């Protein structure tokens, strides 16, 4: 079996982030990010979420905890993040960019409904031997 190249490792990281947002622990989720990562999300009036910029794993974790406490995502909320149309551009031995489309579903155990769609503009860095997300800019629409 041939080892995964950087682009496939990054695609796996993106998939892992989506899975962990819905069903994983906060600790496992933030481990997918570099220590100094930046996470940018626009306001979502449908969900009552203001625009946010989170810097570092601690702030990113705090955002996850807030969204889980509000019942917006996470275990028991019956939501799903789906990441598709992933294009990866490895820019150096230690950096890469990825663009992807996301969809967000709610009520997944009863009558699943599409709740949102948008795109991710992501940057990655090779940190501690793993490709981790270093910057995410989320767009809606």
What can you see in these coordinates?
The chain is of the alpha+beta class and 141 residues long. The chain contains 3 helices and 6 strands; from the N terminus they run H-H-E-E-H-E-E-E-E. The chain has helices at residues 6-23, 26-30, 56-69, and strands at 33-41, 52-55, 80-90, 95-106, 113-127, 130-140. The chain has a 6-stranded mixed beta sheet, with helices on one face. It is globular, with a radius of gyration of 15 Å. It starts with 5 loop residues before the first helix and ends with a strand. 21% of the residues are buried.
Set out the fold topology:
Elements: H1 6-23, H2 26-30, E1 33-41, E2 52-55, H3 56-69, E3 80-90, E4 95-106, E5 113-127, E6 130-140
Parallel strand pairs: 1-6
Antiparallel strand pairs: 1-2, 3-4, 4-5, 5-6
In short:
With 141 residues, the protein is of the alpha+beta class. The protein has helices at 6-23, 26-30, 56-69, and strands at residues 33-41, 52-55, 80-90, 95-106, 113-127, 130-140.
List keywords for this structure.
141 residues; alpha+beta; 6 strands; six-stranded mixed beta sheet; globular
| Strands side by side in the biggest sheet | 2-1-6-5-4-3
Q: What are the low-pLDDT stretches, counting only 5+ consecutive residues below 50? A: none
Q: How large a portion of the residues is in β-strands, by DSSP E? A: 35-45%
Helix content: 25-40%
The N- and C-terminal alpha carbons lie at a distance of: 39 Å
User: How many beta strands in the DSSP annotation?
Assistant: 6
Largest sheet, strands/sense/barrel: 6 strands, mixed
Radius of gyration: 15 Å
Shape: globular
Report the average pLDDT across residues: 95
Order of helices and strands: HHEEHEEEE
Backbone structural class: alpha+beta
Number of helices: 3
